[in-house]
Specification:
alpha+beta; 413 residues; five-stranded mixed sheet; 3 domains; three-stranded mixed sheet; 6 helices
Length: 413
């Protein structure tokens, strides 16, 4: 059959279908119309040569698929390669996925693996009946057994990953502000991006990455004991959290207590990020080292202390809100909140703006040391501007020596 004969048949088929479509009345006669169309078309084709009849069934089938394909397309609204990228997409390629443990982009951008990570692998979908090939003067639908859909995009997978903003709990090692120069852990919630629908393991890894990098919103007094070290994986089991680090950390310039707190910094951070309470943490080191800072073996697990002994790790005073560097809505009275472990649960506070004292007073927490309590301070209606809130405690002996203090610089907008 030559191109002219093929074209004539196609035009006749289209004319027949069009004629039948024009006869459709707005009622449930779909089955009758199809039957009539088939009968009329069959009678016309009976007179064609045997070579012509060989093409009729595939051609009619292809035309039917084309109509159905158009209906599906209209329902979807957007072609497959323009649909929004799903959460946790990995690679925009038609290469079949390889077997083995899946990889998920870590918050730092480097892939990490683990059985407890949630990853979504998008292999090429098959879409029968959507491909077309040119023949003669028009595009003729074809129906191969399976058609591999084109890749959704050539954009790198890191740009296709859907993320969401999240307040990540991060712990930092810093001086407690007292005259005896002790150190403790301070917690801050740092806003960061995590994968949509992030697993507990991914949240724990993101929190660790924030804590180990000390973001700009953190106090300049905080130590950086994990410089040059990256978290390379987090796995969450039923009774243990496993954390993989690239290096063991350097104890150079750190006291024994500071390096101990640095290990506890990771313990508190990953437990808070995972959000499953006090779950023991075990570390592995990618370079084969068997101890953190050369002092703390990876063969054992680490945990936070109990509520009555948390003062061993945590700084005596925290300001939770307003957090450092934040802007507070000045349309309503400003209320500061925090935690403390102080003698008789008492702490003093001062509010300054531009070096001038705005207000001062004292606050009493819900519990006294050794149990940690919460406190709140009503700062009232504050004009727009920048303020520094300082909360501190003094010695029970002389009432003057500062034993611990913390401050937060914030803006009222």
């Amino acid at each position: 059959m030559n191109g002219g004969e093929f074209g004539d048949l196609e035009r006749e088929l289209r004319a027949a279908l069009d004629a039948e479509a024009r006869r459709i009345e707005p009622n449930e006669r779909h089955a009758q119309i199809l039957a009539a169309a088939r009968a009329r078309t069959a009678r016309r084709w009976l007179g064609e040569s045997r070579s012509v009849r060989r093409w009729l069934v595939p051609l009619a089938t292809a035309a039917s698929v084309a109509v159905l394909g158009g209906a599906v397309y209209n329902v979807i609204g957007e072609p497959p390669d323009r649909l929004p990228a799903p959460a946790l997409s990995t690679s925009a390629t038609t290469t079949p996925p390889t077997t083995g443990a899946p990889t998920t982009p870590s918050p730092t951008g480097s892939p990490s693996s683990g059985p407890n990570r949630t990853t979504t692998s998008h292999s090429s979908a098959t879409s029968p009946g959507r491909a077309t090939t040119a023949s003669g003067s028009g595009a003729v639908p074809v129906v191969p057994p399976a058609v591999t859909a084109p890749p959704r995009s050539t954009t790198p997978s890191s740009e296709l990953t859907s993320t969401a903003a999240r307040a990540l709990p991060a712990y930092f090692v810093g001086p407690d502000g007292g005259e005896d120069a002790r150190f403790g852990l301070f917690r801050q919630f740092v806003r960061g991006q995590v994968p949509e629908g992030a697993t507990p393991a991914q949240l724990g890894e993101a929190a660790l990455s924030v804590a180990m990098s000390r973001p700009a919103v953190a106090s300049a007094d905080y130590l950086q004991p994990w410089t040059g070290v990256q978290v390379t994986g987090v796995e969450v089991g039923s009774n243990r959290i496993d954390v993989s680090l690239s290096h063991p950390g350097s104890a150079s310039g750190l006291s024994a207590e500071q390096s101990r707190l640095a290990v506890q910094q990771l313990v508190w951070t990953v437990q808070a990020g995972v959000g499953q309470g006090s779950t023991p943490v075990r570390f592995t080191i990618d370079d084969g080292s068997t101890s953190l800072f050369g002092r703390y073996p990876t063969s054992r697990t680490y945990d936070r202390p109990g509520a009555d002994t948390a003062y061993q790790d945590l700084a005596p005073l925290w300001i939770d809100d307003p957090a450092p560097g934040t802007t507070v809505n000045g349309s309503s009275p400003v209320v500061a909140t925090g935690q403390s472990c102080t003698f008789e649960a008492v702490a003093q506070w001062q509010l300054r703006s531009g070096g001038s004292l705005v207000d001062s007073g004292s606050t009493t927490a819900t519990s006294a040391c050794p149990t940690r309590g919460t406190w709140q301070i009503g700062l009232g209606d504050l004009p727009k501007g920048t303020y520094t809130l300082r909360v501190f405690t003094t010695s029970a002996g002389d009432g003057k020596t500062v034993t611990a203090q913390v401050s937060s610089r914030f803006t009222v907008g």
